[in-house]
Design brief:
The protein has 72 residues and is mainly beta. It has one domain. It is built from two helices and six strands. The chain has a three-stranded antiparallel beta sheet, with no helix packed on it. A three-stranded mixed beta sheet has the order 2-6-5.
């Protein structure tokens, strides 16, 4: 699955290391303001997204983690 994130925060967004560890692929460099980033998730998954704000010194961080589609 392809997931697109658009950084409209006005700040740089770092990507949490667990994003890649959990199986999401793509460019893992810092996302600049007004930049669009594409993440690729394994088949039969959807994105679970969490963002942290560590303040001015450490900035923003995003985690994009694949979750398995479960039968309803």
């Amino acid at each position: 699955m392809k997931f697109v994130y658009f950084n409209d925060t006005g700040r740089e967004v770092g990507i949490h290391s667990a994003t890649e560890i959990h199986g999401t692929t793509g460019d893992m460099s810092t996302i600049q303001p007004l930049e669009e980033r594409i993440f690729y998730l394994p088949p039969n998954t959807y994105p679970w997204v969490k963002m942290w704000d560590y303040g001015e010194e450490r900035g923003l961080s995003i985690l994009v983690s694949p979750r398995k589609n479960e039968a309803e």
